[in-house]
Structures are given as structure tokens and as C-alpha cells.
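Below is a concrete protein record.
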Amino acid sequence: MDGSHSVDIRQVAQRAGVSPGTVSNVLNRPERVAAATRVRVLDAIRELGFVRNASASSLRAGQSRTVGLMILDLGNPFFTDMARGVEDALSERGYAVILCSSNTSRERERRNLLMLAEQQVRGVLVTPVSDDPAPLDVLRERGVATVMLDHPATQSDQCSVTVDDVAGGRLAMGHLLENGARDVAYVSGQLSIRQCMDRLTGARQAVAAVGTGTLREIVVPAMTARAGQEAAETLLGELPEAIFCANDLLALGMLRTLIQRDVRVPKDVALIGYDDIEFTAAAAVPLSSIRQPTYQLGRIAAELLLDECDSPGGHAHQQIMFQPELIVRESTPS
């Protein structure tokens, strides 16, 4: 039949000689329908070209097959790789993803969370802008399950999957200090972002453990390669012995400017990033970095969310924290 979008359950029922309720059972609870009847209904569906409105039917049943994913920055490969883990896990269970970014803006985060609530998503995975749990109230008020992704849980009755960024900061700074650096610059985004602050805390701990050394703390407006280039310009007048960037995009931008200004890496200045995104190993000087299990973060968080959605009474909330790994390449002494 032409125009399959106009075919509804009543027409299928009429063709098969059954009630609309039986057609609904074949689509949603086939085990309740006798085999011969199922065959008649499925034949009618094929003959008429019926296509169910999965969105409408799931909303009527209160069982949306859509999950929201709110991340900090779509331009950062760290988050896109994490989103791939989320999507793979959800796709295997028949779920779709609505992906949105706060771009580290609290107001944009608030608007996006409201939009996801209005879309009646089954649950939301969120990397929040800050530690303030208030923006999630719009979801809690509607009974929407949430899992913190790349951020510790803000409540005991909430799942989270994250990485120990304090330990990561210690690893990065400890590597620089062990190779003789004593004047080190830490370049990061706003310290209200938990990841930036935790990495700085770890760096400070490493300096304190050595007992000597200077840690310059430089905050840039965005965690981008361009911001890294601009930060490098400010350091050229008084070049430190080493630079620790809070993510790889900053470090790659930093590296580009240093090379353009004939600064030798690592002979004149050692440089380390964070996240170990794909491009770091292929940089003009392969970049040392702190590796996170990015794909696994997203996949496990999605599995926890679906478990909570499917078994709310028997679900045990988990707060999972992975440990980061130091990856040494040519941008730092080995």
C-alpha cells in the first residue's frame, strides 16, 4: 500500500480479523498471542506496509527508548569517544541518544536539562558544569534516572563513573619533577570545572611531596587548542622548565606555538597533556599525556543507567572510579 504512514493499528486489525488490542499485543507482548494469530497479524502488517510510531507508543506506556547525554564540550575528542561508548551500549539495548553540550555554561546546561525532561527521556547521563546538584532538580522532580559521567556522584542514591583526576595530576606533575623540572606552569580552564581543579590539586600535592619547586597556575577561558596557543605566547617571555596542560587540546595548541617560535620540546621545555586523545601520538613532537579509559567510561555509565531504569527496585547504586595511566612520549624526558 502506498503512503504507509497513513496505516494505523485499526486497519491492520481489520485486515487480520482481530481486535486492535491483539495487534498491540503482537507488537509489544507477542508471547500473549497464539502463534497462528501472530502469523495473521504479521502478514497484515507486511501487506499494508504498517510502520509503528515507536516514540508515541513508548510514551503512552511510560517507557521511552531515548536517553539524554549531556557533556561539557562537543569539540573535545575526549567527550566524543566517551559518547561512542554510551551509544554502543544503548544501541545494543534498543535505545537512542539525544546528545547535547553545555559548553561549560550553567545557563545552557539548565536549558538542555529542561529540554531533556520535556522530551520524557528514560534517563540522563550528565557531565555537569559544577558540583552544584541544583540543575538536576528538573530531572529528579520528574523521576528521571541520572548517572554522573566523568564526575563523582552528588548524592548517595546516584550512580557515577569517573576517573581519579587528583591522581592524574600527581602522575603528570610527578613525571616532570622526577626529570628535574622545578619551574612548572599548569595551564587549565576555569577552576570551577571539577576536572581542572582536581588535576591542579594533584599537581600541588606532587610539588609538596618534593618540597621544592614553583608551580605557576595559568587559567585560560576555554580548553581549546587556540587557548593553548595564546597561553604559550604569554609564557615565551619567561619560559618555564616544563608545562602541564589540563587537557591535550591545550597542549597541542601550546606545542604548535612553541615549535613556531623555535622552542625545542623537550630540550628547552618539557610538555605534558591530559586525556591521551588520538592526535597526541601523531603530533609533530609526540605528546606525553595522562590516559583515561574514555570509551569504557561511557559504556559502563550507560549500562548502569539502563539497569536503574529497568530494575529500579533492585538496582544498587555504584560510584565507580578508574585510575589514570601515565603515557610517556617524546615531549618529556623519559
Remarks:
- The two ends are 69 Å apart (CA to CA).
- The first helix runs from residue 9 to 16.
- The chain has a mean pLDDT of 90.
- Residues 73 and 79 are 7 Å apart (CA to CA).
